[in-house]
Amino acid sequence: MIQQLFLLNSTLGNEEGKEMEKILYFFPEETPNELQTKTSGFCQALINFILPFTDEDCETIQQEKKKISLFQPEKNFWLIITYNCETFLDNQPSDELLHCLVKNAYCFFTFFCGKLEKNVDKNNFKEIFASYMREFIERINLKLNHPQSFENLKLALQGQ
Fold first, then answer.
1. Cβ neighbours of residue 146 under 8 Å, at least 6 residues apart?
2. C-alpha distances in Å from residue 5, one per residue of 1, 16, 27, 52, 54
3. How far, in whole angstroms, is CA 97 from its chain's centroid?
4. Mean per-residue pLDDT of the chain
5. Cα torsion angle, 79, 13, 33, 43, sign
6. Per residue in 51-104, pLDDT tens?
7. With left for phi above 0 and alpha for psi between -120 and 50, is residue 7 left, alpha or beta?
8. Which of 44, 83, 106, 158 supports an S-S bond with 73, CB 3.0-4.6 Å?
9. Whole-prediction pTM value?
10. Binning pLDDT at 50, 70 and 90, where does residue 41 land?
11. Do the beta carbons of residue 89 and residue 106 sit within 8 Å?
12. SS3 for 97-137, per residue?
């Protein structure tokens, strides 16, 4: 099950007290700002550590209770999905599946709206992006909650 999904712009919110400006979207949306900045700050630190050592656009980090998939679809933008590993102890998603999920979240938005950098300055960008991500997360979580659908999702996404 998708635990969190968020979009960061690494050029924003770099001053003390302005960290929330960096977060363009965060799911679940009712997450307190303090937890959002803590989580996104941790992921930003991972990104800053990993970036010099890889030329991949997507990386997955395994923790004890969750996996974090970091994807840089465009310069300065990071889309991050965290997956709760305790949900399916016997049937964990592969790193490749998580890469596909995070990339598909980006494609779901850009198919209808275009690149992030062309949209981010629009007044209602956050609301538009949020509506697409809500629909994406709802569809994916429904599939992840049913073992047979989970297997079908793995096959469908890995076939792309």
1. none
2. 11, 24, 5, 24, 22
3. 13
4. 84
5. positive
6. 788 777 778 888 888 889 999 999 999 999 998 877 665 667 778 888 888 898
7. beta
8. 106
9. 0.84
10. very high
11. no
12. HHHHHHHHHHHHHHHHHCCHHHHCCCCCHHHHHHHHHHHHH
With CA atoms as reference, report the closest residue to 68 among 52, 125, 55, 49: 49
Task: Quote the CA–CA distance of 48 and 52 in Å, as a whole number.
Answer: 8
Give the span between the Cα atoms of 159 and 138, in whole angstroms.
21
Block residue for tokens 């700050």: 41
Instruction: Lay out the sheet containing 23-27: strands in order across.
Output: 23-27, 2-9, 77-84, 66-74, 58-62
C-alpha distances out from residue 8 to 12, 14, 59, 65, 97, Å: 8, 12, 15, 23, 21
In this structure, which amino acid lies at residue 89?
L
**How is residue 74 written in tokens?**
């465009």
Q: How far apart are the first and last CA of the chain?
A: 21
Q: Which amino acid is at 126?
A: K
Question: How many residues make up the chain in this entry?
Answer: 160
